[in-house]
TrEMBL record:
UniProt entry tagged with the keyword Transcription: yes
PROSITE patterns to which the protein is assigned, alphabetical: HTH_LACI_2
Keywords, comma-separated and alphabetical: DNA-binding, Repressor, Transcription, Transcription regulation
Protein name as annotated: LacI family transcriptional regulator
InterPro entries: HTH_LacI, LacI/GalR-like_sensor, Lambda_DNA-bd_dom_sf, Peripla_BP_I
Residue intervals of the HTH lacI-type domain: 9-63
Top-level taxonomy: Bacteria, Pseudomonadati, Pseudomonadota, Alphaproteobacteria, Hyphomicrobiales
Amino acid sequence: MDTREKGFVSAETVARLAGVSRSAVSRTFTDGASVSEATRKKVLEAADALGYHVNHLARGLSHDRSNIIGIIVSEIPTPYQARLLDEMTRQLQTIGKIGMVINTTGDAASVANALRQTLNFRADGVIVLSGTPDASLIASCVANGQRVILINRSDHIEGPANLAVENAETAQEAYHLLRRAGCRQLAVVSSTAGTPSLMARENAFLAAAMADGLAPSVVKAGPTGYAAGAEAARQLYSRSGGPDGVFCVTDLLALGFMDAARHAFSLRVPQDVSIIGFDDIEQAGWESYGLTTFRQPVEEMVEAIVQLLSQTGPADWPHAVPPIKPVPIWRKSVLPRPETT
């Protein structure tokens, strides 16, 4: 006879079938708890017959801990976000946490709604990958015992930890790589998204160029993606005096730019134009692109997040985390440094 019930089987039902107390069931499924072997055997047999599974959410909430980590993110299909989510959810599981991904559009209203959802589900913490949350909502999360981690967001909000990549210094390095390659007519391909990390890259590159007396063109042909990069190339090369050195603030923009430059304008990369990206997505290393870029160290970033979430007391919680430096990845989209005579 099938003894399995419809819906979730309760510990009370297991206790009745096993002929033991409710507390004996709880002790059986609690690591290190004291229970006799005979009782354990009866409980496990009953649990197996009924299809019982421990309700970790209810158990955690009884101790003010859900083990849920909210992850607020937009543009999930993009290679960088997908890679970050993959690494993050896997590493969270290694410390007994479950990632609850909330897909947003990245605007203020959707991010605010996502934060409220993390409070409704009593999440232990929340990681904000997209959008800049309102300070009052952040304060509400912190007041409810949530650990809040902002990734490449604003660093002037009180309460959360901010894990940032060294965007400005890296963009300056991109400028010097192009200059050492002999590039004189420079351009920055950015995005209408205007996120803090993208703006930091754009502004730092422009500042480095202006310090040398140069004024690069800036093109923002749409949101951060392949199509916007291709459109940027069409805008720049549809008139005379197009750039011979281009810094794209993401790899997706760079790949779109490269394809349009080569196929619509018959330009050679890097002989006619050198191109540098940012992120080191998988496609950047494909043979057809060979994009020189800066790798965001995703594994290191996620390890830092896991370490933050593993800390136990409020006194341990930092508000400032040292920035993580991207790694330059040299491929074939930038001319080698010219020989000096």
